C-alpha cells in the first residue's frame, strides 16, 4: 500500500510539474512554503529553494501592487474564502511579470485554516493585450472628440468640457471666460480660393489660435463652420481680453492673403469675450449668449476687432 501511495504521489507530482501553471503550497501557521513547482525558476528566475517564507513572496511583488495584494490575500484567507489576485512579480533580472495567483484555502478538522494551495499563472500576454485594447479605446475616444478637419476639439467635446468647467466654477466660485472667434468674410474666401484652400485656411487659423492663446487645462474647439470657441477656466475678464487681443495680433502677423475680403487684403477675424463668476440664478446658456452677442457687435462695428462684455461679473457676486 505504501509503495502504491508513493507511486501515486510521484505521478501527481509529475503531472503538476509538467504544466505551465506553477503549483505551490503554504503552511499557514508557519507562514512558510511547503512546496513550489520548479516552473517558477523558468518564469521568474528565482530558484525553488529561494521561496522559503511568505515574506519571500511579499518582497517579490511590485511595490505598487504589494499592499493591495497582501492585505486582500490575508483577509480572504483568514475568512476561509478561495480567491484570485493579479499582480506584477519581480524577476531575478529586475524586470516584472504579470502573475495571477489562484488560491484555495484548506481547513483542518476544527475548521481553522491549515494551509493554502494554489497555482501561479503567467498572464503577461493577456495584460499586454488588455493594455493595448485600452490604448486603442483611448485613441478612439480622442478621435471622437476631435474635429476631423482642424484637429482641435469638436462640438461634442466642447459641450462636455463646458458643462464640467461650469460645475467647477459654480462649486469653487471661480471665473469662467469664453472667447468666441469668427473668421471674417469666410464665404468670400471659399468662393475666391476654393473649398480646399478654405479647409487649409481653417486648419491654419485653428493652429494659430491654439498655440497663441490656449494654455494648461484650457480648451479650443470648433464651435461651428468658421467659428472657434476658447474655454478659459479660472481666467478673469482682463486675462480673457488679453488672449483675444493676442489672437487678433497673431492673425495679422500671419498675413494670410484674402483678396475677396471687405475688411482688408489679408485674413481677419472678429472676437467676442465674456466672463462670469457664477452665482445663484446664473446659467451657462446665458454666458454663451453673452459671448455670442459680443461677437455680433464686433461684426457690426466693422469686424477685425475684439468686443468684450461690459459686465464681467454678475451684480450679486
Automatic annotation (TrEMBL):
Pfam families: GGDEF, PAS_3. Residues 8-69 form the PAS domain. It catalyses: 2 GTP = 3',3'-c-di-GMP + 2 diphosphate. It comes from the Bacteria. InterPro entries: Diguanylate_Cyclase, GGDEF_dom, Nucleotide_cyclase, PAC, PAS, PAS-assoc_C, PAS-like_dom_sf, PAS_fold_3. Residues 83-135 form the PAC domain. CDD domains: GGDEF, PAS. NCBIfam families: GGDEF (TIGR00254), sensory_box (TIGR00229). PANTHER family: DIGUANYLATE CYCLASE DGCM-RELATED, REGULATORY COMPONENTS OF SENSORY TRANSDUCTION SYSTEM. This is diguanylate cyclase.
Amino acid at each position: 500500500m505504501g509503495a502504491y501511495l508513493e507511486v501515486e504521489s510521484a505521478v501527481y507530482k509529475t503531472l503538476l510539474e509538467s504544466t505551465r501553471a506553477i503549483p505551490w503550497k503554504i503552511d499557514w501557521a508557519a507562514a512558510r512554503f511547503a512546496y513550489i513547482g520548479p516552473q517558477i525558476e523558468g518564469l521568474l528566475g528565482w530558484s525553488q529553494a529561494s521561496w522559503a517564507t511568505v515574506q519571500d513572496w511579499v518582497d517579490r511583488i511590485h511595490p505598487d501592487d504589494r499592499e493591495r495584494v497582501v492585505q486582500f490575500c490575508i483577509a480572504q484567507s483568514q475568512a476561509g474564502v478561495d480567491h484570485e489576485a493579479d499582480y506584477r512579480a519581480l524577476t531575478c533580472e529586475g524586470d516584472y511579470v504579470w502573475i495571477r495567483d489562484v488560491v484555495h484555502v484548506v481547513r483542518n478538522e476544527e475548521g481553522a485554516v491549515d494551509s493554502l494551495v494554489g497555482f501561479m499563472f503567467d498572464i503577461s500576454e493577456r495584460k499586454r493585450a488588455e493594455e493595448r485594447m485600452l490604448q486603442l479605446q483611448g485613441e478612439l475616444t480622442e478621435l471622437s472628440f476631435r474635429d476631423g478637419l482642424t484637429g482641435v476639439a469638436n462640438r461634442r467635446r466642447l459641450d462636455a468640457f463646458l458643462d464640467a468647467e461650469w460645475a467647477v466654477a459654480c462649486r469653487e466660485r471661480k471665473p469662467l471666460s469664453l472667447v468666441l472667434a469668427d473668421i471674417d468674410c469666410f464665404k468670400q474666401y471659399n468662393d475666391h480660393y476654393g473649398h480646399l484652400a478654405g479647409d487649409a485656411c481653417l486648419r491654419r487659423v485653428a493652429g494659430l489660435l491654439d498655440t497663441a492663446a490656449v494654455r494648461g487645462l484650457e480648451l479650443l474647439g470648433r464651435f461651428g463652420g468658421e467659428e472657434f470657441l476658447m474655454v478659459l477656466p479660472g481666467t478673469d475678464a482682463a486675462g480673457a481680453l488679453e488672449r483675444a487681443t493676442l489672437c487678433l495680433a497673431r492673425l495679422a502677423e500671419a498675413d494670410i492673403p484674402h483678396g475677396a475680403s471687405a475688411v482688408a487684403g489679408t485674413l481677419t477675424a472678429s472676437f467676442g469675450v465674456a466672463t462670469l463668476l457664477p452665482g445663484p440664478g446664473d446659467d451657462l446658456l446665458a454666458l454663451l449668449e453673452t459671448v455670442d452677442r459680443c461677437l455680433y457687435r464686433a461684426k457690426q462695428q466693422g469686424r477685425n476687432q475684439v468686443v468684450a462684455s461690459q459686465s464681467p461679473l454678475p451684480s450679486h457676486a
